[in-house]
Structures are given as structure tokens and as C-alpha cells.
Amino acid sequence: MEVREDYKFQASVSTDAFIDKTISNAMIGSTKNNPHNRQIRKEYGFNSRMGVGYLEGTFTSQELLDKLTEGHVLCHLFAPIRSRRRKDGTFGTSEKTKDNFRCSYIIGVDIDETKYQSAEDFIEKLELKPTLYYTSYRNQKDGLGARFRMIYVFDQAIYNPYLFRYFSLKLHTKIENDTKEEIKDKCGINCCQYFNGTNRHNKDIVFSSGITNIIYSLSDIPFITKDDLLLYLENKCDYKKELTIYELSDIRSIKNSVLHSNFLNTYYNDWQKNEPFELEVNDIKNERQEKEEDDRVKECSTFLVSDMSRLSYDEFMRYNRHKYCYFYRVEKEEWVDFNDKVKFQEIDENYFSLLYNVSRITDGHKRRKKLYQRMCLRRVMNPSVDADTLLFNAYEDLHRFFDNDSQAVKNVISIDELVRNYWCPVKLKSPNKKLG
Questions:
Q1: Second label for 424, Cα 20 to 30 Å away, from 169, 196, 258, 291?
Q2: pTM above 0.70, yes or no
Q3: Mind spelling out the 3-state secondary structure of the chain?
């Protein structure tokens, strides 16, 4: 752990801010299950048919605290299918699902019932102080005492919903041990959980907040061992509900990764840390960052490779198509609106796209070479592409454009071979120079 005021991380925050809990819950809640929410939205001046909209952003701890205490709602990073995003780029509550979970740099802890008189008294007992905290809308109301939320920020993302649940559960356990009281509502272990903000401008709210700017590593969370993680997975991640066959299959996949590799050490590796937002620049730091970026891009998720190996193409795409972006051309970040209906981009001399093969490329027509070239060209399109996205695109190309049916082709391109081959394109420091 270290104190870093300038550290930046990603999170999803509502575009609207809310003055109190009534409107916040009405914007988050369903109008189908609770038609009264529509009337509340209208009374507060919001679109009665449009619920809360989340937008990903990059924040320092102070910037996130400012947002939360202005009444914005916080949640983790999700990757909804593009068609489910709204026109303004936001996503709603219905897209905030475990299947859509992309990753999270934060763990939130919600304290609603405590014997401590204030958030500050509670936090004083903690060995691991939160990165930031703020009292909730109903703090010290209705005789319920102190109510507040604590946010812990980490230097690396947690990419799997079941591992998020594990790390969050261990953090909650540590807090319970320090305070000698149970956290009765451990809603923070759910990766789909949202966190209401508060509103420091509302004079009816008993408000306080604080910030330490402590950035944690996952290895700072105690009680984490390989045996404990295996027991947690064996117990179906402590879920009380009945799990689906797909959820059980995902849990078994993690368990196999833990059993057959030095999993926890791999998960703690520096390549997963969120370092690209360093603000200071010098030759030594540039050299270190280049090495870290190389290390990050060379790794790919064991879960992704496992899914490719054990699932059929249709099953794999059902679970992963919304998590990764399939791209085949050079695109700029901004699109130009035309008549408020059509968006376009002007192309320049740097524009190019991959060929679309109408018929599949058959055995004997340099399938491996062409697949490799497409990987390299994607690195030219997007030099900062992450390893998982590059591998996902290669997998999609293999099934979309290449004849690789084991019953018809003798020389099948295996998933292991695909994983080995993607290393060459990701090692290119200057792909334009290499291929140009």
C-alpha cells in the first residue's frame, strides 16, 4: 500500500446527481416493479421514462469523493453489448449484471448498523483505513445511528466476478475482526452492487467525509491463501442461492487454474497494475513504463484461454462477445454526427482495414501465416491493445474466416497454438516500423 494523491483509476459513475435518497432510489429502481418511481422522477424534474445512466470515467480518489458527495451513484466497470448502450454512451441498471462485469479497481463496504457513534469512530479501529469514506443520506436519521460507505482503491483490477467476491469477502472479514462486530449487509461482495452517493449541499443531511489517498494492492488483504481460495471455490463461492450449470462451470474453471498454476502470485503480478496514468515523465520512468507495458501485454487471462479450450464457439461467444471489442479497421475516438441520426469519421492516410473473406480460407492456403498477419495488423491499428482483446480477435477470425473443422481438416489450428502465436505480435514495440 502507498499514499498517492495523483493515482488515477477507472470507475462507473451516474451522469446525474441526486439531492436525496428518495430520488436516487427512484432513478435506480424499476418502474415495472414499482410504478411509483415514475411519478417520483417526474416530481424531481427527471425524465420519468429514463432511469439512472452510468458512464465510465477516470478519477483520482479526491475526484471520486467529490462526485459521490454531490449525489452521484457509483458502480464497477461493465461491458454491455453495444446495442444495449444508450445513445449518450451510458448504460442502465439492467446492464449491470455478472455476465457483463468487466473489472473493478475498487471494493466498497456499506455500514448500515453499528454500535459506533460515527464513521470516524468506526474507522479509527481499522488497520486498513479506507481510501475514502462518506456518510449516507440517512446517517443519524430515525434513530439508526451512523450510516456510511467506505471505498478501497486498488492498484490493479479484479477481472472475474467470483474472484471479486472472494477478495471483497476477505476485506469485509478483516473489518469485522478489527471492529469486533458483524457487517450484517455484505452487499459490497456483489460485483453488480451500486453505491448511492450523498449530497453535501443538502442541509437536512448529517454529513461527514474523509480521504486517506491510500492505494492498496490485493496482497494487502489478509487471510488469502491458495487452500482458502480452493475451499471457497469448493463451497460454490458461499452463494446461498442455487447456481446455474454455467456458473458452476465458471467456478470449476477458476478452481482448475488455482490447482494447476501458481495462481495467486500470477494474479498479483505487476503487469496487471494500473500504471499508465503516471503524470511525471523522465528517462528512467519511461524505460520502466515501457517494460511494464511489455509485461502487461504479454499476459493473457487464464480464464479466457480456458473458455476457448472447453466451450463450443457459440457458448464461448455467448459469455465473452460483450467483454471484448472485435475491431477490423482504424477508428478515431470521436465520431461526427450527421443529421443527429448517422455518425461518421473522415479517413486519412493512416486508415486501413482488414480484408473480409467471403469464403473460408482452406487448409494449404497459408492459414497460419494469414492469421498471424491479422494479429500484427491489429497491433498497428491499436498499439496499446491488451492481450485478451488481441487473442479474442484472433479466436473470432479463426472461426469466422478459416476452415478449421476437425472432421474436414487434418492440420487443425489448436487453441494452444493460437495462444503461442499471439506472443509474437504483442512483443512488437513499434509495429508500424516492423510491418511498414
A1: 258
A2: no
A3: CEECCCCCEEEEEECCCCCCHHHHHHHHCCCCCCCHHHHHHHHCCCCCCCCCCEEEEEECHHHHHHHHCECCCEECEECCCHHHCCCCCCECHHHCCCCCEEEEEEEEEEECCCCCCCHHHHHHCCCCCCCEEEECCCCCCCCCCCCEEEEEEEEEEECCHHHHHHHHHHHHHHHHHHHCCCCCCCHHHCCCCCECCCECCCCCCCCCEEECCEEECHHHCCCCCHHHHHHHHHCHHHCCCCCCHHHHHHHHHHHHHHHCCCHHHHHCCHHHECCCCCCCCCHHHHHHHHHHHHHHHHCCCHHHHHHHHHCCHHHHHHHHCCCCCCCCECCCCCCEEECCCEEECCCCCCCCECCCCCCCECCCCCHHHHHHHHHHHHHHHCCCCCHHHHHHHHHHHHHHHECCCCCCCCCCCCHHHHHHHCHHHHCCCCHHHHHC
